[in-house]
Amino acid sequence: MLKISNVTRRFGAKTAVDRVNLDFAAGQMIGIIGRSGAGKSTLLRMINRLTDPTEGRIVFSGVEVSSLKGRALRDWQRDCAMIFQQFNLVPRLDVVTNVMLGRLNQRGTLTTMLNLFPREDILRSIEILERLGIAEHGPKRAEALSGGQQQRVGIARALMQDPRIILADEPIASLDPMNAQVVMDTLRRIHDEDGRLVICNLHTLDTARRYCDRIVGMRAGQIVFDGKAEELTTAVARDIYGADADFSEEATSTSIETLSRPRPAATAQPVLA
Predict the structure, then answer these.
(1) Which of 179, 12, 38, 155 is nearest to 87 (CA)?
(2) Mean pLDDT across 72-95
(3) DSSP assignment, residue 133?
(4) Is pLDDT at 69 greater than 80 in this prediction?
(5) How many domains does the chain have?
(6) Alpha-carbon span 146 to 141, nearest angstrom
(7) 125 assigned to some structural domain
(8) Is 147 a domain residue?
(9) Is 108 a member of any domain?
């Protein structure tokens, strides 16, 4: 479905992503883990084409997306939705309008600026907000919401694009533990119910183990692990994060306990943050 071949990205003399090769099939939830600066965000931005590869190819369903331009590139960015760490909402706009901005690629800029959205877009945005449990916040300005609620608005905006792939770049890095769980429960439920390919950049091992079917570990721009959650042992984690990383017996047992918890049911509704 999505094939990344020898992809490299350099920023001057610095190599952020170094000859990465990955294949992602439909219907997976992928966690990409590693230290800050490992190249995780750069990799996701290249998949979405917010950043262009220096070398290599990215192919989706037989189409080389790494070479797309113009309308074809905009169509790809519609099919490959991005969720950001800092939400990227328009603070002074209401929640419903922020969600409808997910249709910006399909609507004219003037239409959007004048807030002339068709009725079907309005109804669709409300339907998505209801699905995510935040429909009552629709008339509020985005800046009035908590961080967890704003991130769910960001997820709703991504769903408004009706994408085939959802990329989440550190979606819970700025959230407290309760809101982080709500957001990850939401992403997992979308994956389970819709069968969409979801790729998340994550910092914590516990989160990756609990929510993801497959985990990719990056270090210094390279892939150093690619396997199932249960294969992510303490020794592997040290290889990803460095030999000086602290993985005590207590921390390891906590990770195993977290891994043993059942994943959120596909029908569970997220609680309000």
Answers:
(1) 155
(2) 93
(3) T
(4) yes
(5) 1
(6) 11
(7) yes
(8) yes
(9) yes
Going by DSSP bridges, is the β-strand pair 63-64/29-33 parallel, antiparallel, or unpaired? unpaired
CATH number (domain holding residue 202): 3.40.50.300
Q: Is residue 148 one of the residues assigned to a domain?
A: yes
Q: Identity (one letter) of the amino acid at 248? A: S
CB 215, CB 208: distance < 8 Å: yes
pLDDT number for residue 270: 38
| 177-194 and 147-160 helices, crossing angle to 10° | 20
CA gap 173, 169 in Å, rounded: 9
Give whole-number Cα distances, 163 to 102, 159, 189, in Å. Answer: 10, 7, 15
Choose between 48 and 259: higher pLDDT: 48
pTM over cut 0.90: no
Radius of gyration of the chain measured on its C-alpha atoms: 19
Query: Tokens standing for 174?
Result: 């700025």
Residue span of the structural domain in which 199 resides: 2-242
Residue pLDDT, tens place only, 149-164 = 999 999 999 999 999 9
Q: Are 236 and 225 in contact (CB under 8 A)?
A: yes
Average pLDDT, the chain: 86
Q: Which of 20, 27, 9 is nearest to 166 (CA)?
A: 27
Tell me how many degrees the CA angle 114-50-123 measures, rounded to the nearest 5.
40
Give mean pLDDT, residues 123-136. Answer: 95
DSSP H helices in 88-211: 95-100, 109-113, 119-131, 147-160, 177-194, 205-211
Task: Note the Cα 243 to chain centre separation in Å.
Answer: 28
